[in-house]
Amino acid sequence: MKKIGYGIGAFFGAILLIVIIALVFAGSFITPSFLVKQIESSINVRAHVESVNISLFNVLSGIEIEGIILAPRDEVANKGTPLEERKSKPKGLIQLGKADVKISFLALLTKTLKVNKIVLKKPEISLSMNEDGGNNLTSLFKTPKIVDGEKNPALSPEALAEKKAAEEEEAKEKASAPPSGPFSIKDIPIAIKMGLVGIQEGNIQVNMRKTGQQIQIQKLDLELKDIDIDGSDLSSHNNVNVNFDADVTIIGRNKKEAAKFILETEGKVTPFVVKTGLVNPKVIYEVTMKEDSFVSGFAAFDAIAGELPVLDQAGLKLDKLKEKAELKKDVSFKVEYSNGRVTFLDEPTFPTKNYDLQITKGSYIITTTNYHEMKMGMLYDEDESKKSLASLDEKIKQATKGQGDPRALRNKIVGNLIKDERLFIPFRTYGDIRNPNVELGVGLGTLTDLIGGAVKEVIKGKAADALKKIPGAGDALKGLGF
């Protein structure tokens, strides 16, 4: 047994020695110049790499690459000019401060892919979305036409014909093979363990050419942690912890900030269905929107504030909805994400100086299309509520020629618009969130008719009995000719 132990030890020692030697020699040729040449031969960019760090102390764990830049391709890249002969760095659409990759090679001997860390630090990305749905980064990842000053051999007629033949052969094999089902993690014969995969201190700028909006994602920290997946034992090894923190600012066509959301998100994700091994279509996140987040000029609020005639006719002035509204405290809530659809699983209230916004459970937005359907309630500022309700009372007083108690009449007719002595507007917004359809959740027809002068028709209808029961209303009716 001892000899067997020595033999096994010698085997693993030999493997370890081979890996160390291979990685030490790798450090001699994996240089910034080498990586730039490989990148520019593969994709349609001009690249820059500041430094590559491989030392004897981390050869068994990984590699660090600093100062990565990917820019639109130019003559320098087409000619294949060596990196050390280039006079300046390109201005990149994609820039990475550092890529830090640490892998446990020894874990592969136990059929486990163990990644201790894959982190992109301080990435800077500038993205423009075209009206047709395309973007300015797509062209960067195409096959370059010129490499080292000559036509790319990969695009020669012979190479393209060979590639086409290979694709046709692959298609024939797929057609003759029995139909395969959807991807299942159970088909992967290796367990996956990862300590940390993510982005730290990222900044992404997205320009929407169709709408003129700009979306800035700053201080982006995206972390997938403690990844533990084993297709042969999903009941015990089927976990990913997700953290997402970012400041998301939306700048309108007028170059003014329309909204800023300071987000902290975390969730414990079960990535695969235990029974089938298929990708889990639903993920639940705990989201915290931080104090000082704000909304200004939300299209649905603009509609409520002045574009719904029934409110204006009723004398409800909600001008503060058009003002900047800052969140007064942190608000936490749960959402479910599935196929681009974000659904609220509870009913959070967002308190601001101007109003408190309540979102009803089941409200959703589809991030890929901007379609949404949300039921909300807006509890207006207390002082402004008093002014609006006083204005209503005055209109009722004028309509009833001062007879009866206008406040009692108002409360009977529009009591469903008052909550905790504040004006409460329930509404539904749906369609494209940038230009939504907005509907009130209460009927104001009775009040509108009353203050508009059609008092007789209202009182002859369903409101008559209710009005007669209000003290003083009988005198008001007589004064109106009833």
TrEMBL record:
One of its GO terms (cellular component) is plasma membrane. Keywords: Membrane, Transmembrane, Transmembrane helix. GO terms for biological process: regulation of protein targeting to membrane. Residues 161-175 have a biased composition (Basic and acidic residues). The chain crosses the membrane at residues 7-30. This is AsmA family protein. Residues 161-182 are annotated as: Disordered. PANTHER family: DUF748 DOMAIN-CONTAINING PROTEIN (PTHR30441:SF8). Residues 1-268 form the AsmA domain. It holds the Pfam family AsmA.
